[in-house]
Structure formats: C-alpha cells, structure tokens
Write a structure and sequence with these properties.
The protein has 445 residues and is an alpha+beta fold. The chain contains 10 helices and 16 strands. It has helices spanning 24-30, 46-76, 112-123, 151-163, 176-180, 311-315, 333-363, 366-384, 393-409, 418-433, and strands spanning 16-21, 81-86, 98-99, 101-109, 129-133, 141-148, 170-174, 195-201, 204-210, 217-224, 227-233, 242-245, 255-262, 268-275, 281-287, 290-296. The strands form 4 sheets. The chain has a 5-stranded mixed beta sheet with strand order 3-8-9-16-15. The longest helix is centred in the N-terminal third of the chain and has 31 residues, at 46-76.
Length: 445
C-alpha cells in the first residue's frame, strides 16, 4: 500500500506575507472554468437517450482512468513551494542615547554678577565654567564647571581647581535626562570606535562624541541659524551617513546627522551637523578623546540683583553652598607696590613678544619657535619665583597659565591649530595684565 510522505506545514509569521509557488499545470487546473449547461431543452427522439447514455458511460470510464492517472501523478509530483517575505516598512529614525552628567560646584555667592565674575576667571584657565541660580535658595548663585560624561573627568577637573585655589569644590550629579527620558538601548553608529551621547546639566545640554583616541583637529561653525557643524579629524574607519532624532523632552537639540567627508589631501573626517533652535547657543570643547558641544539658553538679565561685593571677594575660591567661605588673606600696601614694580618689565616683555608669536604661528619656522620657547621658559621661571601678594594671586596664576599655554603653542610638535591656540593664550594674557578693579575700603561710601 502506497502512503503519502508527510509534509510539515509551514509556520507563517503574522508580520510576513505568504507566497505560493505553483507549476503551469497546477495553475491551469486552478483556473479551469466550469462547463456550460444547456438552457433550452427540446423534445428528443428515443434513440437520442441511448446515445446520451452511451456517452455518459464512456465519460465515466474516461473520468475513472483520468482520476487514476491524475492521482498517481499528484502523489509523485512535487508539491507547491511556500515562501514568505517581510512587509516593506519605512525605517524608524534611531534615538540618541542619554545619560547622567558630572559637574563641580566651586562657589555659591549672593549675586549673579559675582558668580559670573568667578566663572569668567575660571574659564580663563581653560575650564568650562558656567553659572546657575541655586534651587530652593533665594538670591544664591552658583559657579560650576562641567558637565562631564565620566566621573574620572570630573575628578581631574576638581584636582585642577584645587591647584588653582578652589579647594572647596564638590561634584554634582545631574540625572535629569537619564531618569526623565526612557531610552534603553544605545544606538549603533555604524562604526564600533565612535559613540554618541546626550547629557544634561543645570540650564544646559551637551552632545558628546566619544572617539578611540584624542582627535588632532576639531573645528566648528554655525552654517545657518538652525544648523551647527562640527568637523572631527582624523576619522577612525568608515562612517555610513545616518540621522538620529532626540528623545522627547529635549529642547535645545532637534536632530543630528553624521557623514564621512574627504579632505583635499584625501584624508577622511567626520562631520556632525546639529539641528538647533534659533535661540540656542553652542560652544565646542575637546576633553581628551571626547568632543563636547555645549548647548545653552540665551543669557537673560536677572530682575533682582543682590548687593555687589568687592572683586577680591568674588574672585576668592569658595566652597559648596553649605560650607563656610574662608576670608581672603590681606596683603600690605608695601607688598603690593613691590609686586607692581617687579611686574613692569614682565608686562613690557609680553607686549614685545606678541607680534613675534603671531608671526611664528603663521610661518611655522622651527628656529623661531625654538627661540620663542626659550624666552617663554625664562619668563615662566621668573613668574614662578616671585613673591606674590594675596590681592594679586588670581591674576598672577592666570599669567603663569597663559605663559605655559603659549609655550605649548610654540612647541614644534604641536599638531593642532597653532594660531587659534596662541590666540587663546593672548586672551589669557590680556585678562592677566588688565588693571584690577578698585577694592572697596571700609568706612568710605
């Protein structure tokens, strides 16, 4: 007895549509139309019934033979193949991953002007300082540094602040985006060596690119009112063009596109284009192998201002808002006069060197750069050996930092934008050599 082989039934996915494959004979069998029947009947002779019965008998014999042959053919013939294909769907734009940030609170003051002055002085040392109004406290303003993605970065900044005299800084963790935006899986960038992240901080937002090593060059520009481009080179491996959306609840960033571009010399670099609101402010900083794009709201003047303290008190390092602020040591007028006299040739020397530094940055002459480095090294040695009064300590520290920054810019092994680096050093020199504001004297109005 012949038995038909068992055929497993295909399991169909509800998200996929089935397709049945048939042969031409099977299709003809499926498409066969029913035979036409007679509508009008006419009287027939008796012999016609005999002829009809004969035809029926012959048809029955033929049908039986055809059924037998067809059954054997169907038994041994291949069965129709079944396949399934996914429904075509529009790909969903991926969402950028979010996370927590780390910032350092360096001062809590009673005036927004004083907090802003402290943040400006800290920014002169190359740290990303900003201000915010303390939550839950009236007329209290905080100067902060950050945000950073990792705790290691924040601790390094905290140690650097301590070396500059701001020893009371405390680390502040902001989880507003990580807890408020539900994004579980990180987005693949098409390059395993590059990652992207969004972190929040008080009254600001940072888009972060993580690279396998520190980039040699990072440039940025605002191409339109709503587009901000960041170019990073070199590019570690190929990067497919892609576009991301931002999570709901993020207002300072709308979308990010990434693409690989070719430089005139044939090298590849990465371009990240950020779609921003017209009012958003953007600033780029490079922290090792991470590139930060800090986005902030427009600066608005406060309606109420607290009484202004002296510049000396505002520049003084402050601890967290719940820690007492130590008083600054007071220097004698004689010490101040001696320091000012000692600084006259230093300021004159800096003014003389400035055009030579600008010219060397453009020409890149190794001999000129080496000579300038020796001059700056002697200047740094002179500054570090001076006896500095307490009233001039912040400006003196800024002057030393500017000298060291200029030395890094004239180093022949420097690979970044030499002119831009030296311009930052010039800005630090200008801030350090600017005349200090007069200090309030008790008893005088």
């Amino acid at each position: 007895m012949l038995t038909r082989p068992r055929v497993e039934k295909p399991v169909l996915d509800p998200q996929r549509y089935p397709v049945v494959l048939v042969t031409e004979e099977q299709l003809a069998e499926l498409m066969r139309r029913p035979s036409m029947r007679q509508v009008n009947r006419h009287p027939r002779a008796p012999y016609t019934y005999v002829r009809r019965w004969t035809r029926w008998a012959a048809a029955a014999i033929v049908f039986a033979m055809v059924a037998a042959v067809g059954g054997l053919t169907w038994f041994f013939a291949p069965q129709p193949a079944m396949a399934s294909f996914p429904w075509a769907a529009t790909p969903r734009m991926p969402t950028i991953t979010t996370g927590a940030s780390f910032s350092i609170t360096i001062a809590s003051l009673e005036s927004g002007d004083e907090a802003g002055a402290t943040a400006t002085r800290v920014r002169a040392f190359g740290l990303p300082a900003f201000t915010r109004r303390s939550p839950g406290r009236e007329q209290m303003y905080q100067a902060m540094v950050g945000p950073y993605v990792s705790l290691d970065e924040a601790e390094r900044a905290q140690r650097r602040l301590s070396g500059l005299g701001y020893r009371g800084g405390r680390i502040f963790v902001d989880e507003s985006l990580r807890t408020g935006v539900h994004e579980q899986e990180p987005v693949s960038l098409g390059n395993k060596d590059i990652a992207a992240l969004i972190v929040g901080a008080p009254e600001r937002l940072s888009f972060v690119l993580e690279l396998p090593e520190e980039p040699s060059q990072v440039t940025s520009r605002r191409t339109t009112e709503t587009a901000f481009d960041v170019d990073v080179s070199p590019l570690p491996g190929p990067m497919p063009a892609q576009q991301w959306r931002v999570p709901e609840g993020v207002h300072l960033l709308q979308a990010v596109t990434m693409e690989e571009l070719s430089a005139p010399g044939g090298s590849k670099y990465l371009r990240a284009r950020l779609a921003l609101p017209e009012f958003a402010k953007a600033n780029v900083r490079n922290e090792g192998r991470r590139v930060y794009v800090d986005l902030t709201w427009p600066v608005a003047e406060d309606d109420v201002r607290a009484p202004r303290r002296t510049v000396e008190e505002a520049a003084e390092p402050a601890a967290a808002f719940d820690s007492p602020r130590p008083k600054a040591p007071v220097s004698s007028p004689r010490q101040d006069d001696q320091y000012r006299e000692a600084m006259i040739p230093v300021h004159r020397r800096i003014a003389e060197m400035r055009p030579f530094l600008q010219s060397a940055a453009k020409s890149g002459s190794v001999e000129v750069l080496g000579a300038l480095d020796q001059t700056l090294a002697a200047l740094e040695s002179s500054l570090t050996s001076m006896s500095v009064p307490a009233s001039a300590a912040p400006q003196h520290q800024l002057l030393v930092a500017a000298t060291r920054s200029a030395r890094a810019g004239v180093d022949p092994a420097f690979t970044g934008d030499r002119q831009a680096h030296l311009q930052k050093a010039f800005d630090m020199f200008d801030g350090a050599t600017a005349p200090a504001a007069p200090t309030a004297t008790p008893g005088l109005q």
